């Protein structure tokens, strides 16, 4: 069975091939439509990238399970020792709008843990990588989170996360809220210390956060769900109960400040 470093090399090769496919559609008015049940938009580029990734990855690792935002659910993944967890284009709305902040998010889970991960932003030439027990890198250079505290911290999150109802006694900490369109990229930005934290207080799809969670963890960030528990992947629902990704000090402060349960 290939190890995490070999899996990362495979993911990196797949991401390099996916990037030019996405860029062929980017800013070219790709066909797009809304998914059922309010699941958001999808474009012909998402499907083309997904097809390429599935061909490359499953041909190389036929025994691995497959979980992708743009593929039909395959329950057999739950019985596989390893599983690919893929978002072909994370930040589809940004992609449709011609913005640069979209990413390919590719990960391998062994059991319920992520062991290899890449987040690649082809329009920005940014590639974040990590594998189990290895370093977290951005374009080949090590990254690390900030050591900020909660007061004045720059937190990547959505507007509703700053509502008083989410915080103990209705006291919203004095952080500064900012936003980037790709959730995978938000985790990586916290991992490299360009922002101090990434926060979501609503359930997150595994394909959005699997790769970024390992990159942040190997960079030295504290990574948990909104309750402070370890994230587990390749689950039946394919969702995680929110996320807190930050340097250890800020992570502890955010957990203390949040209303949980």
Backbone structural class: alpha+beta
Number of domains: 2
Shape, please? globular
Q: Unreliable runs, pLDDT <50, ≥5 residues?
A: none
Quantity of strands, as a count? 16
**SS field, number of helical segments:** 6
Radius of gyration: 17 Å
Q: How would you characterize the largest beta sheet?
A: 7 strands, mixed
Look up the CATH topology of the largest domain.
Answer: Fructose-1,6-Bisphosphatase, Chain A, domain 1
What proportion of the residues form beta strands (DSSP E)?
25-35%
CATH architecture title of the largest domain: 2-Layer Sandwich
CATH class descriptor of the largest domain: Alpha Beta
Query: Distance between termini?
Result: 40 Å
Written overview of the protein:
A seven-stranded mixed beta sheet has the order 3-4-5-6-7-8-9, sandwiched between helices. A five-stranded mixed beta sheet has the order 11-10-12-16-14, sandwiched between helices. A two-stranded antiparallel sheet has the order 1-2. The chain is of the alpha+beta class. Helix 1 packs antiparallel against helix 2 and helix 4 packs parallel to helix 5. The N and C termini lie far apart (40 Å). The mean pLDDT is 96. A hairpin with a 6-residue loop joins strand 1 and strand 2. The protein is built from six helices and 16 strands. The chain folds into two domains: 139 residues, Fructose-1,6-Bisphosphatase, Chain A, domain 1 (2-Layer Sandwich); 104 residues, D-Maltodextrin-Binding Protein, domain 2 (3-Layer(aba) Sandwich), CATH 3.40.190.
């Amino acid at each position: 069975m290939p190890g995490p470093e070999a899996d990362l090399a495979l993911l990196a090769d797949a991401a390099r091939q996916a990037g030019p496919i996405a860029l062929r559609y980017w800013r070219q008015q790709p066909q797009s439509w809304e998914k059922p049940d309010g699941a958001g938009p999808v474009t012909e580029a998402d499907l083309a990238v997904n097809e390429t990734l599935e061909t490359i990855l499953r041909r190389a690792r036929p025994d691995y399970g497959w979980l992708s935002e743009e593929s039909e659910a395959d329950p057999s993944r739950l019985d596989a020792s390893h599983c690919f967890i893929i978002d072909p284009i994370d930040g589809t709305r940004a992609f449709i709008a011609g913005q640069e902040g979209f990413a390919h998010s590719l990960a391998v889970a062994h059991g319920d843990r992520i062991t290899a991960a890449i987040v690649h932003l082809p329009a920005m030439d940014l590639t974040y990588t990590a594998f189990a027990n290895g370093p977290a890198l951005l374009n080949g250079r090590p990254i690390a989170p900030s050591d900020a505290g909660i007061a004045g911290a720059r937190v990547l999150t959505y507007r509703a996360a700053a509502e008083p109802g989410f915080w103990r006694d209705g006291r919203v900490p004095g952080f500064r809220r900012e936003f980037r369109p790709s959730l995978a990229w938000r985790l990586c930005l916290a991992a490299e210390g360009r922002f101090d934290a990434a926060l979501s207080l609503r359930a997150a799809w595994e394909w959005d956060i699997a790769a970024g969670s390992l990159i942040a963890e190997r960079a030295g960030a504290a990574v948990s769900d909104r309750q402070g528990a370890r994230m587990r992947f390749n689950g039946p629902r394919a969702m995680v109960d929110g996320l807190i990704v930050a340097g250890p000090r800020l992570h502890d402060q955010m957990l203390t400040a949040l209303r949980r349960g």
